[in-house]
Amino acid sequence: MPARVEHFPYDAEFVSLNPRAPVLSEDMRAAASDGTVVRRFEQDGRRMLEVLLRMPWEGGPCAFILARREEPPPPSLLSLPPLKDWSLLVSTVVASVVLALGPVVRRIRMLTEDVRASARSGYAQPVAVRGQDEIADLARAFQEARAEIQARMAHQEAREQGLRDFLANTTHDVMTPLTVLQGNLSAMQQRVARGEPVAATEVASAMSEAHYLASLVHNLAAATRLEAGAPHVQRSPVDLNDVVGRVLGRHQPIARQQRISLESGVPAVPVRVLGDVTLIEQAVSNVVGNGVRYGREDGHVAVVLESTREGRFHLRVLDDGPGIPEDERTRLLARGVRGNAARTRAPEGQGLGLHIALDVAQAHGWSLTLSPSEYGGLEVCFSGEVLTDDAPVSRG
């Protein structure tokens, strides 16, 4: 029975994907760069023959092929062929190796074409996996890399689209109140130039738009941190009683101008949570600001903070405004989506504030729900776990 021939492929750097492939000596590597190398040696008492061939193409995992087999016991000196016949023997071995490697080379070329075609298609075209050997393993590795590239490309495209939408919504949000503010200031300037008293309605409108622009700037900063991911959320104990007090103090002036009663109810014992005080305060401020800005004149907005025996809190913002239809409540939690025009007196917002409130809640492991208020308007509720340890509290 003829001895079995083993084949080991190497790339241009003499590295093989086959873990059983022998390490080539420096002499063989140097000689292989010029052509074919033939080497005989003994291994464990067996006589071995190795032929290292340089393939006719450049690069790839099969730039060099090593053929190895065990040689039969040496014949007697009388039966050895003449030295001139050794060249014929070597040529025969080389030809056998090339013929044996033909299917392997064809598969490698097919794999190369598949990878290039996948790259030309933006990695949409899959790489075919054929067989169960090292070449098939290489094809599977290309396929896994293609899937990873596709996922990263999709993620990047989604982020870029989100950024474009974010900029479009923000531009709209800024320009409309800025235009109104400029109009009010221009009207007041003309009245002052004529020696007339400034109308209280114009001052109230200008203050309202300035307040809205300030909240928008805070939202942009919050959105930037949230887009950057969890490592930018600074977690420390936060007193929600203090958060409610600061938010109401910030919105009271505009609520009085719009003849909206803004009230709160908090427990005597502070309710503490673990989170980012700046983001939490911005989220609550967004919801309260919506209630004030979009409520009815002579209406009411209430902020109610409660804690349960199960170690959870509920922070509810309720109003008696026009409310939101049921089919729009879920849509409101998507950036750029607003409620029905019947809910708003001013049409310029793009829903960024409510979307940020949802992002803040999710970043802290809380829930945010929208439901009809028992007073006829909207109820927005933050719910999450209460902090029970004795860590120092962040009060903003």
TrEMBL record:
Keywords: Kinase, Membrane, Phosphoprotein, Transferase, Transmembrane, Transmembrane helix, Two-component regulatory system
EC number(s) stated in the UniProt entry for this protein: 2.7.13.3
Keyword match Lipid biosynthesis: no
GO cellular component entries: membrane
InterPro entries reported for this sequence: HAMP_dom, HATPase_C_sf, HATPase_dom, His_kinase_dom, HisK_dim/P_dom, HisK_dim/P_sf, Sig_transdc_His_kin-like_C, TCS_sensor_his_kinase
One Pfam family matching this protein: HisKA
Catalytic activity: ATP + protein L-histidine = ADP + protein N-phospho-L-histidine
Span of domain HAMP: 102-154
Subcellular location: Membrane
GO molecular function: phosphorelay sensor kinase activity
Domain Histidine kinase, residue spans: 169-388
Domain of life: Bacteria
Protein name: histidine kinase
